[in-house]
Structure formats: structure tokens, C-alpha cells
Description:
- This protein is of the alpha/beta class and 630 residues long.
- The chain is built from 19 helices and 24 strands.
- Helix 12 links the parallel strand 18 and strand 19 (403-406).
Amino acid sequence: MCGIVGYAGNVLMPSRRPLEVCLQGLERLEYRGYDSAGVALTAPGVDHVEMRKKAGRLSNLVADIEARPLSEATVAIGHTRWATNGVPNDVNAHPHSSRDGKVAIIHNGIIENASQLRLDLQAEGYRFVSSTDTEVAAKLLGKIVDAVIEETGGPNLFEAMRRMSRMLEGAFTILAVDCRQPGVVVGARHDSPLVVGLGEGENFLGSDVAAFVAYTKTAMEIDQDQAVQVSSDGVVVTDFDGNVVPDSVIYEVDWDASAAEKGGWDSFMDKEIHEEPAAVQNTLLGRLDANGDINLDEIRIDPQDLKAVDKIIVIGCGTASYAGLVAKYAIEHWVRIPVEVELAHEFRYRDPILTPRTLVVAISQSGETMDTLMALRHAREQGSKVLAICNTQGASIPRESDAVLYTHAGPEVAVASTKAFVAQITAAYILGLYLAQLKGAVFRDEISQTLNYLKDMPAKIQWILDTQTDTIKEAAAQLVNANTVLFLGRHVGYPVALEGALKLKEIAYTFTEGFAAGELKHGPIALVDEGEPVVFIVPPARGRNMLHAKVISGIEEVKARGAYIIAVAEENDKDVERYADVIFWRPEAPTLMSPLVDVVPLQLFAMDMAKMKGYDVDKPRNLAKSVTVE
Ligand code: F6R
């Protein structure tokens, strides 16, 4: 939610153009918000910071800069916005400047005491042109910079930023530049992400590493309530009181810039769906030792503590929470302890029962979802251990958890989550099997058989990508004008139905609902009318055929009322052939693993339909990839 980039190059001999670094970074961060974009630059010898900002996509800003070029600079900051307060227009776009135009800032988050600060500043004669909280911070910072100059005789943006940070309430990452200090960019963070990129003769700041991974893969973490100053030849980190932090964690980013490029695909979503076999495979990699045992040394929770766990609560939002729902079926089955799954924003405010024997599993692709972060902080305060399942190295959620199990899906750029979902399920399965191994809840040979099934899943996903795309496209074309689509599933098919419904609503803007198929007769069937499209996730007829029979009955019931049936079913399912109008086939898979394949046609279906409607599948309206506000 809002992408932030900052660059400090060499004052005498810039190695790159700061503007270009910022625009490149913004292009990679645009998935975080795309309501408007802007940059601010400065250089020695100028008397104000130069700014340019435009409503709409980054391309509007780029076109504007091409038409009216900006001056050369030594430092720059850039912002791509997801509006929180103030409509998305040129005026509300970031950067915002101080009263004298010498200081400019960009901001991600919500400043909760902005109204009061605005009133205070207005009483002192300050005037505001926008309706944003960010402009309040810009005017305030300018005022504090002036006060510091008066006190000390010289500008000190870093000190001013710290003083302001102590006054702000809410969530913020703020970057600022001052034309009187044209060699530095300063930043501060509280409940909002910020990382440093360490270069040679240049340094970078970003909401995440995507902002600068094209230039450096060495990153430095900035912790909660820390401020940072970067120049071409140094990085200084302090707390908000000015105490230097000597030991910030430095790490190497484990993917390169090309992983976050489309690489010939016409959308990131298409590319990322096609990366699902690799996402599952890479998430499994390195987690088994030579004896075939699951080895999760990386998770840093004492195995004895894990053995003592008597309840698991999975928290997450949206797609991540549906991965958690799938995990519940598998972990309860293998480990035989209760697993609750809860939306992080609900969990936090209902006073959940947490003990030191409760393991809270926080699932998040971005690792920055504020609702999930707040929920995990609450769980830790209550004495429970938190294990994160996360796709983003060094993000706040893994950093603040007791342990982390990384999914290795690679960067997910499309706003709608796809490959992260299958990777999250895979990681949750590994965790479940590991707990079963520790507790001796499942025989070793069963664990290794299950792992073998899991290892087969990438090939099964690939089979769908290789054989089903035409059928899926035809179905999307057939239903492109549908006003509503219902999704129904049972058991592990239920979270898949929820995820299928979410994908279609968020990118094709079709009204959808996902239900547990058993609920049909308790209400939703009233929605079924002649031609109503209903998608069924059909469990295999093998094994728990009880489930299969029940879902088939559900299909019969809606078919009898004129519904148009789309089924996701295992190859050669004759019952499905009898009733369904369209079938997305998937290869044979054990029931517990089936979500890894069942979800794939639904992701493709949503993407095809959105494309047919002419929508940008990577950047759906009103959404942003990383939801860093509560
Ligand atoms: C849906 C989607 C969202 C995210 C949710 C959590 O396609 O992407 O529902 O799953 O906002 O995000 P993370 O996983 O980053 O915490």
C-alpha cells in the first residue's frame, strides 16, 4: 500500500540519474498502489526541492516528465499512491512540501493525529492545499527543520525527522529531502515497511527490495521506530531519540530483478500462475534431510516447545486465510490437535484464548499486512509463539515472529495472489507433517508417502496448465456477461471455492460468492435461477466417496433449477460428466493435496474473464498488493 523509493548518489559525480532510479523503482513498486505517482529531487545550489506529481498510473507521470523535463539531481524520492485520505488527484498525490518549498516528503500509512496537528499549524498561519495527512507532516517537518536551524545554526533533516516521528501517531514510513542538504535522504518508520539497499557510492531506500534490486541485492533492515539517513557513502540508523543503532541486520536478496519482470508474458498474473509448479517445488526444496525426515532447523523454535503445542491458530487475510483453511484440514488430520483459522483483523479484537502452548501461524505473502502484524503482536504479548509463513525475506511479519518458514514462490507482482497461495499451502503441509513427526502422531512411512505425493504435485499443476487452458478460455468467453457466479465446495474444496470466488470478484469485478456446498439448502439455493453459473469443486470419487456423492447431489439439485454447471473434477469422473455443462479436469491427487490443483483452473478462469472484459488483471481497481494500513 503506497510504494516508496529513495536514492542518494554521489554529489560530485553521480553514478546514475536519481530520477531514473526512482522511476524504475516506482515501476517495480506500482503493485503497491497506482492512484497517483510523484517524485521530488534536489541538487547542490538550488533554493527549493523540485517536485512533479500526477494522478493516475505511473505512465502519466513519466509522460509529464518527458514533456517538461526535470533538472539534474543528486538525491531523489518517489512515491506511488494508494489513497487513504484525500481522493486520488494531482494535488493529493505525493510528494508534499514544506511551506517554503525547501523540504519535500513522501509517506506510506495513516497519521492518526493529523487533524489536531493541522489545526495547530493552521492556528499558526499555515495554509494547506490538499486534504492529506501527508501535507500536515510536510508542513510540520519544515517547521521543525527551521527550529533546528535556529537552535544549531545549520540544517539537520535527520534530527528534524526524529523529532517529528516522536510527535506522530498512527502508521508511517516517511522519506524526506531538503535542498539545503542535497546529499542525503532521510527516513523513519513506525508500523510501516522500509528497507535500505546498500550500493557502492550510492544507497537506496524502498518499501521493499523490489525498489532497488535492479541495482543492488544487499539490503539492510530498518526496525520499528527507527530513523535512517542515507548518503552516497554512508547509512546511519538511529532510534527516534537519536541513539545510533550499530547492528542492523544486513542480508542478500535471494532473487534477482528479472524475477520481477514479465519476461514475455502479457501479464504478471499469467506468468505467476505458470510459475506455480516451481513455487511448490522450491518451497519443498531443502526441507528434507538425507533420511527423508523433515528438517526445519530454520524455524528456531525449540522442538520441545513445538512438541508441547496443544492448539494451533492460523491467522491471515484474504487468500492467505484460505490457505490457512486448507491447512486446518491437513494439520488436524495429521497432528490430531485442534486448528482454528481466523481472519487476522477479527482475531485481534475478540480477546482470543492464547496460552504458551498455543502456536499461532501467521500466513502472509507480503509479510507486511498490518492486520496480520497487529494480530501476531497480540498473540506474542499473550505468551504464545508465532510462526510466520511468508514469501518476503526480511519483511515485518517474519521479523517479528518467533520463527519463519519461507515460501519460495519468488516475487509476486500481480495484485491478485496466485502462486503464493499454492506455496503457502505447501509450507503449511510441511509444518503439519513436521509437527506430526515430532509428536509421533503419524507413522514415518506414512509421512514419507505423503511427502512423495507432495513432490508429485508440481507435475500435476503443470498438467492442468498444459491441457486445460483452451477449455477454461472457452468457459470464460461463454460466461463473460454473467452478473453473478456462485462457487461451492466441501471439505478442502470449500476454501478453494472461497478462493475461486475471490479471484473472480477482485479482477473481473463479477459479483461472486463462495459457499460450503452443504450450506446450499440452508439459503444460497434461493439464488439459483435459470442459467445461473455455479462452479463446483468436486472431490475425487476414490477414497472418501461419501464427500463425492454429497457434492454430486448438490450439483443435481441446482441443475434441476436450471443452473449452468462448471465443475472442477478429477479425470474420468463419470458422474460429473453426466451433469456438468463445462468441466475443468485435473489429474488424480490425494484429497488433502487436491487444493493445489483445483485452484489453478479457477485462477485461469478469473484471469481470462478479466482480460476479455478489458481489465488490467495485474492492477485491479481499488486494490493494492500490500495492505499496510488496518
Ligand atoms: C487476494 C489477495 C489478498 C491477500 C491478502 C493478504 O488475491 O491477494 O486477499 O491475500 O491481502 O495479503 P498477504 O498475504 O500479503 O498478507
